[in-house]
Every structure is written in structure tokens, then in C-alpha cells.
Design brief:
Butyryl-Coa Dehydrogenase, subunit A, domain 1, 382 residues, alpha+beta, Butyryl-CoA Dehydrogenase, subunit A, domain 3, 15% strand, Butyryl-CoA Dehydrogenase, subunit A, domain 2, 4-stranded mixed β-sheet
């Protein structure tokens, strides 16, 4: 899709990501679904190529591209048809790493960032709890000051990369005596820290090649130099990175939708019923054509939102629109694609069946549709 947002750098990102997906992911990823995680050798290879540094400034060892690079990268990962693989990567690059890149100090970057860029240090972000998701101010995990460090107590739920991550950025309440949004901090916690454990790995409807976990912190002591940014500013860091997170997840969903339509066009051209290909049925052609138009509209919105962010504009409204739109659209697209695959679309051997399960999360995770619509509504008056 050529357009005003495209550059040679972004086209190079697209082509290189697509080549990697086709050569290194698609032939093997069915095995990862069975194993429940993406092998570390794949992560390391992606790091060696430089995928993890797309959004990292050049002075920190990265490529120095902007939000538009995340859109292109996420779309191509979505086109892999393996949502678990795509989200494993995007949690590392666009959901977790930005906390260090944007808010960490020089010493912290020197300590952890090189490993993140190579894939030797895989990351996760731990905000969600049993009673707190998009409502970040409601988190209950605490971090009590103790000498030259903090003691963490609490639990986190639905944490993507929670089992395999080497370093987790944890949101915890450091000041219980102020307004809830003003007393939260972010800590970088290595997986081998005493008092930090994976309580259980969680089985899911989709994203089966992505590990998801419940994490527990029991008198988990971390040094003060593991505090990311300023104390009690974590809520605002999370709100800032939500735009980055939602842009990437929505773009992944649009990539999945586009690929599903392509697969379904190919199938309906080959599959015959009542003596002719399904593609000859106008109802099918028109439905897929309409869905494609909707997907392309979403891709343009994604690029506009990314352009606003790259130009330091407030894009909360546009990103919320995109997340709500893409999360619902990809589910409608996959519903139609399963329908037009007929019985084969219901079989586990079908790519479309797996994608149908994978995309259900897009209207829930990263900010549910209802939450996104409320964000839009807040910005509709004055």
C-alpha cells in the first residue's frame, strides 16, 4: 500500500520482516503452538537482524525510527497468522522496552538495553491484576521502602511473556497516602529475584505460542536503582505508553485481517460448489470486498495516528478510535472468513480456524473496546 506515509526505511522494514516471517516463522510456528512459547533461538535471530532496535534511538544502539515503524512491523508480524508469535515480539518491543528506553537513566540503559536489543533479555510488562486492568489506578501490588531498596508484595495476572521473560517491568503502589494515580511506580525486576515467582502458566483460547502467566511477589526486595524514572510517576508513564501499545496491537490486528482476506479469496477461487467456484457468488465477493475496504481504512487511520505521535501531537483520540475499530473489525473479518471456508474453516488443521481463535482477544486485551469508546466519548465535547 503506497501512500504519503511510506519511506524507503519503512519499506525496508516491511520487506525484511515479511521475509523473516515467511522463511523462519511460518514453517515452524505450528510446533510453537504445541510447545506454548516461541523458542529463544528465534528471538535471538530477530535481535541479530536488528528488529528489536527499530524504535530505540541511535545513541542507545538502535535504528531510531518512529511510531510508523511500529505500525509496519506489527502489521507484518500479524500477517504471519500466528498471533502468539506476533504478540510475544510486540510485548518485548512496544509494550515493555519503551519503559526503559523512554524513562530509564543512563546506567539502567547500559545495564539492560544491550541484552534487550539482542534478544538475550526478553521483557514483559506487569500492570494487570485480578481487580485492575485498564483501571491502572486500582492496582494493589505494593512497594514499601526498605533501606536502600523496596519490598514488593502482590500479584499480577494475564502477563504475556510472564513465563519466559528475563526482566519484568512491574507497576506497584509506592505511596498509599495520595490520590491513587499519584502513588504508583515502575520497577525493573529480573526473573531470578528472590520472592518473585511465576505462580502458574495460563491456558488460553488463542495465542497458544505465547506464554501467559500469573506472577507473585512475596517480600520481593529490589534495589532503589531498579526504580524506572521518578517515584510515584508510574501511572503517567503507563498512560503515555498505552498509546504506543494500542497502536502496535491494532496494527497487528489489521495485518491479521488483511492476511485472512487474502487466504479466503484464494480458497474461494479454488473451492467449487454447485459446479462453480465460490468466488463466482456475488454475495461472497462483495462481502470480502467490503471487508477489504474497511481494513484499508483502518490502515490509513493507523498511519495517521502514528504520524501524529511522531510529530509529538496528542493522539489519544485517534489511537482509541483505531484500537476500538481494529479490534472489532478483525473479529468480523475472521467470522466471515471462517464462514466462507465452510467446514474446513472449523477444522484445527485450517489456518483460518487458528486465526479465528487468536483474534478474539483484540477487542479485550490492551484496552477493551468499551474502554476505548469511553476515551473517545471524553473527547467529543469541548
Amino acid at each position: 500500500m503506497a501512500g504519503i506515509y511510506d519511506t524507503e526505511d519503512l519499506e525496508a522494514v516491511r520487506l525484511q520482516t515479511r521475509r523473516f516471517v515467511e522463511e523462519k516463522v511460518v514453517p515452524r510456528a505450528a510446533q510453537w503452538e504445541e510447545a506454548g512459547s516461541v523458542p529463544r533461538d528465534v528471538i535471538l535471530e530477530m535481535g541479530e537482524i536488528g528488529f528489536f532496535g527499530l524504535r530505540v534511538p541511535e545513541e542507545d544502539g538502535g535504528v531510531g525510527l518512529g511510531h510508523l515503524a511500529s505500525v509496519v512491523f506489527a502489521e507484518e508480524l500479524g500477517r504471519s497468522t500466528f498471533g502468539g508469535f506476533a504478540i510475544t515480539v510486540l510485548v518485548h518491543t512496544d509494550l515493555a522496552m519503551p519503559y526503559l528506553v523512554r524513562f530509564g537513566n543512563r546506567e539502567q540503559k547500559e545495564r539492560w538495553l544491550p541484552g534487550m536489543l539482542t534478544g538475550e533479555v526478553l521483557t514483559a510488562i506487569a500492570v494487570t491484576e485480578p481487580d485492575a486492568g485498564s483501571d491502572v489506578a486500582a492496582i494493589r501490588t505494593t512497594a514499601r521502602r526498605d533501606g536502600d531498596g523496596y519490598v514488593l508484595n502482590g500479584s499480577k495476572l494475564f502477563i504475556t511473556n510472564g513465563v519466559s521473560a528475563d526482566l519484568v517491568f512491574v507497576a506497584a503502589r509506592t505511596n498509599p497516602d495520595v490520590k491513587p494515580s499519584r502513588g504508583i511506580s515502575i520497577f525493573a525486576v529480573p526473573k531470578d529475584t528472590p520472592g518473585f515467582r511465576v505462580s502458574r502458566a495460563l491456558e488460553k483460547l488463542g495465542w497458544r505460542s505465547s506464554d501467559t502467566a500469573e506472577l507473585v511477589f512475596e517480600d520481593c526486595w529490589v534495589a532503589a536503582d531498579q526504580l524506572i524514572g521518578q517515584p510515584d510517576r508510574g501511572f503517567y508513564y503507563i498512560m503515555e505508553n498505552f498509546q504506543n501499545e494500542r497502536l502496535a496491537i491494532a496494527s497487528m490486528a489489521l495485518g491479521e485481517a488483511l492476511k485472512a482476506i487474502e487466504l479466503t479469496v484464494e480458497y474461494t477461487r479454488q473451492r467449487r460448489a454447485f459446479g462453480e467456484p465460490l468466488w463466482s457468488k456475488q454475495a461472497i465477493r462483495h462481502r470480502l470486498a467490503g471487508r477489504l475496504a474497511e481494513v484499508e481504512a483502518g490502515r490509513q487511520l493507523a498511519r495517521h495516528a502514528a504520524w501524529l505521535l511522531d510529530n509529538a501531537e496528542d493522539a489519544t483520540r485517534e489511537v482509541s478510535m483505531l484500537k476500538a475499530y481494529a479490534g472489532e473489525l478483525v473479529n468480523r473479518v475472521l467470522y466471515d472468513c471462517v464462514q466462507f471456508h465452510g467446514g474446513m474453516g472449523y477444522m484445527e488443521e485450517s489456518t483460518i480456524e487458528r486465526m479465528y481463535r487468536d483474534v478474539r482477544i483484540h477487542s479485550i486485551g490492551g484496552g477493551a473496546t468499551e474502554v476505548m469508546l469511553d476515551e473517545i466519548a471524553k473527547r467529543m465535547t469541548g
